[in-house]
Each structure stands twice: as C-alpha cells, then as structure tokens.
Amino acid sequence: MKQRKSIAILSPVAWRTPPRQYGAWETVASNLAEGLVARGWDVTLFATGDSVTQAQLRSVVPTGYEEDRSVDPKVAECLHISEAFEHAEEFDLIHSHYDFMALTYSRLVHTPVLTTIHGFSSPQIMPVYEKYRDGYFVSISDSDRHPSLRYLATVYNGIDLSLYPLNDQRGGDLVFLGRIHPDKGVHLAIDVARRSGRRLIIAGIIQDDAYFREKVEPFIDGFNVSYIGPVDVEGKNKLFSQAAAVLHLNTIPERFGLVLVEANAAGVPVIAMDCGSCREVIADGQTGFVVRDISQAVEAVERTGEISPKDCRRRVEQLFSVDAMVQSYERVYAQIFEREAPKRA
Amino acid sequence: MKQRKSIAILSPVAWRTPPRQYGAWETVASNLAEGLVARGWDVTLFATGDSVTQAQLRSVVPTGYEEDRSVDPKVAECLHISEAFEHAEEFDLIHSHYDFMALTYSRLVHTPVLTTIHGFSSPQIMPVYEKYRDGYFVSISDSDRHPSLRYLATVYNGIDLSLYPLNDQRGGDLVFLGRIHPDKGVHLAIDVARRSGRRLIIAGIIQDDAYFREKVEPFIDGFNVSYIGPVDVEGKNKLFSQAAAVLHLNTIPERFGLVLVEANAAGVPVIAMDCGSCREVIADGQTGFVVRDISQAVEAVERTGEISPKDCRRRVEQLFSVDAMVQSYERVYAQIFEREAPKRA
Prior knowledge:
The structure is a homodimer. By secondary structure, chain A is an alpha/beta fold. Chain A is built from twelve helices and 13 strands.
C-alpha cells in the first residue's frame, strides 16, 4: 500500500489533544496521529489550537470547551467538525474520533469517513447511527459492539509504552484511577480496600459531585483512604509504584479501559469487574483478576503476588501498544481504500 | 423571474410547523412556506413529521423535541439539518430559519443558502456567524441587525390576517401575551395594570419558573390579575376581544414581536417598550404607544381610546401580512439568483 495517503484525524475538542490529564478519546486520537506520522503517513490532526502533535495541526477552537467554560460546546463542535469536512477533498480518508455529530456531515463529502466509536453516550443518539449505518465503523472492544451495526474491525486502544515504564517492585497499596462517578465503582473499591485491610489511594476528576460527597468523601481519612485529585502521567507512575493492584470495579460495561492497560504496562495487576471489555483487556490470572463481585475482589487482592509484572508488560506490548493499534488501523484503512477504489476510478 | 424555482424551507424542529401554541420561528417558516406555495413556487418544507403544510413535507424527526422529551435536541437538529443538506441538489435555494447550526453545513453544498436570523440566542454563537459571514442573511427588523454582518434586506415577519379578524369593539382589560420570562416584562405589565386600576390577563408558557413564582404568581388573584396558561389562535382572539390594549414591556431589545402584529391585526392597540424593534412594528400614536418607562405606560393606558382599530389593521395589512413578507422574500431570492447565476453558468 502506498504510505503517503493523506489522513485527517478528527479529534474531539473537549480537551487538548493529547489531554493534560483526563480525556480518553483525545488520548487515543493523539496516539494514533503520532503513530501514523512515525510510520510515514501524511497526517492532519483536527483538534484544539493548543494541541501538541508531529502531524499538521488544524484548529478553529483555541482551547477545549471543558477547559474554557466561556465556549459553548455545541458551537465549538459544529465549527470544528465542519472545518474538517470543508477540507475533505485534501484527504484520502477522514478518521473521526467524534461522537455522532460528525456522521451527519459525512454524506456531504466524497472522502470516505471512518468512525471509531469510543462509546455510545446515550441511547438517544442511536437514530444517527441507524441513519448512517452504511458508514465505516470500528469498535474499541468486541464487547462494545452494538448489535445493529456492522463493523470493519475491533481495534484496541494503544498507549505510548515509553510513558509507563515497567516497575518490577510492587507496593502494598490499592489504587483507584478514573472519573469519580458511580459507573466507575469508587464505592466498591473503598469497600474492597476496607475488607482487605489495605490502604486505598483515589485519583481522578470528580464528575458526580453528589456521589463524591455521599459515597466517597465520608471514607477519606488521608491514611486508609485518600483522594489526591486528577493526576498526570508522572502522577500515575508514582501511584503505580506504590500499588499492589489497581481496582477497577465498574458498575456498567467498560468500553475499553485505558487505565487498565496503563497499569499493566507499568507491571501493576488489575482487579477488574467482569463487565464489558475487562475480560478482553485483562487476562484473568495472568495480568490481573476478572471478578464478579466484592468478595471475589477481596480474594483477588490476596493473590496479586501471583501476577508477574513482566507478563503484564508483555501483554500490553503485544496487544495494546501504539504500534499494535496503528498497524491494526492501517489494515482497516487498506480495506476502505480497496472498497472505495471502484467509486473513485 | 421564473416562478417554478424550487425552494427548501428549513424550519426548526422544536415545535410542529405551524406550532400548536408557542413557536415564533416555526410560525414564520409556516407562513412563508404556505405563502410561497400560494404564489406558485415549488416548495419543500423540512419540519417535524406532524407538520401541516401545502408544500411537500420532508421530515426525519416525527415530533418537536419540545413536545417529546424523549428526543435529544442535538440529535434531532443534526439529523434534521443534514437531511435537508443531503438533498441540496434538488433545490435552487435552501432558506434556513434555523439557528447557527445550519450554517456549518452550508459550505458543503453548491446550493445557495439564505438564513433568516430570527435571533442571536447567545453571544457565544457569534463565532459561527463570523466564520460564515459571506453567507446570505436577512434580518427580521432593522434594530436586530448585528453590526458585523452584511444583510441582503430586512424582511418583517408576516402573519395570516384571516386568523386575527378585526374586532372594532374594544374591551377594558389589559392583556399580556408571551413567554413568562423576565425578558418579556410580565412584572412591569402587572405594575402598570395595578397603577391603572385595570384588570390584567396573562397568557403564555412559563419559561422561567422562579420568575413566575416570585414576580408573577403572588399577584394572581383571579380577578385583578389572572393567568390562563398558553393560548392558541382562538384563545388569542378571545383575549383581543376583551382588551383595551396589549402590554409588551420588554426588558431586552425585542427582535420583531409577532404578538404586537397579531394584536394590531385584531384592532388592539399595543403599549410597547421603546427597546429593539418595537418602534418599527408599532407606529407611536397610531397603532399603539411606544413608551420608555412605567409611568409613560400608565399614561398610555388612558389614551388607548385615541387609537383607531381600523388604523391598526391597515398598517398590518400593508407591512406585516404574509403577502407582504412573501413578496419581500421573492425580491431577496431574485437578488440571490442573480448573484449566483455566474457561478452556475
């Protein structure tokens, strides 16, 4: 395949690409853009103006609307998406990491559009997917597939392994890393830590204030349970060095779970709920434990010593690295170019 | 000009077109679509599926999102707008009565797009107008023009005069008709009614609950001040037959003010604040009074007998009828077709 095809990566504009702290979709769009550049593709990244990339950056929104509340999200999204589509003719492919909105522009251009569905934000958005179901879609885990959609492939998210170096020495604490939201089961992590007699360190943005106040804050004593706010890459690595395991006891199906992979990359086992993608991302008994309830999670805490940090790292290198992701997307792109060739001939 | 050019009218999908009760933008889109059909144009109305029209109706959203709360407004808007633009090639002109979103699709089609700006819903939407400032715009009053935009014309909204028959007999009550919202000055209407010793009847949807509870409800006694909820055309005519005047003491600039015209059509004088379009719509001393404060409004109440209902009606017939509006838009369309001719040759 000719490597100099031109790819537009359409990242969200909620946060910078890559995000400073939280922002999974922007993280993946960034990793993909940089990975494609490294492998010789001509890449244009549509993202916020303050984004950092080796690709060509195009932006109409200076700062993420989550970082600058004076910006109306709908306005930012419309301006950002339309800018990419107005330049469609310059690209062989538009690869959207956007929610449903970008699809509604897709039939107005001749350039093929690939959408990585990072999540169905609500059942109310399904009418858009129903209308645009003849589009090109990628799922981020097999479990996250919607039964009514056809997908070209599942491409697992890939992380920059150099950011999360292997640390062979395990600490004794338990760590929760993620949004403070009932979906992420912070309250279950607290319960498991208490029953295990382990310290728990909680890090992440508070997305549900009432939940934090009622189900998390009352247990914070700064010793047995502590909350340290959102953390950047350095902060994550510090947490990983203290961790016996990361607890990821999600209460709704996980779509992928970047933090599981980041922990494993650093050699930290993950105790994850058997719900959604966790069983695909964590190899049960090899890179952590996939559990069905609190008592299984408490048992798993006692068995974290059985997990080899090197095994954790090795599996991430094989399945969840930027290289693995980029090569998977290259195969998807090749499929699309093959299907489009007759139309463009 | 060839009359069989094909026009797409893009109505909002907040409410049915025409709306059952409240919905000014949908009312104007409806009046224009029906008026154009009557004058021999080939008209396609993009609106909710339950809309009523003599034009060809196209819809992807069955019911207005304000009438069916299970619908996500952003999803409905994206699907609705994109549907019109995906069929752009079928039309000589797309005439959008939409907010800023439709503009972001406009450069992806070859068909010219005319936008009637029914209002700037927020200063945050201005970046969209700045980007698409080379588009075709119409203002609904001279006072509603944004200084940084170029407009083809001001076209006043037109109403179906047959819906609001002239009633030569005036009643003694004062009437407020509009959204219950501080912008509309319901509290000022109450104040004027009390100082004038007149009864006030309030009709309209409650858009600001706290305002209603604090500034309106305490004065409702069912006799001196009464609130009857939203009203349809029949309900409006009943109110007009009881009215000495309609009070329209808006606290922010009025953009056009359909209700002023409806009242005048029925022969009812309007006492309106000198703010925004009121001075364009109401001829001071002839079809009502344009006032600067409460005390001027109280004085005006005493002078409503000086206003001739026939004069009120006549001015609406001349300036604010569907026919007047349709003919103005025909002149705007002709300008656009003339400018577009070289591009399409």
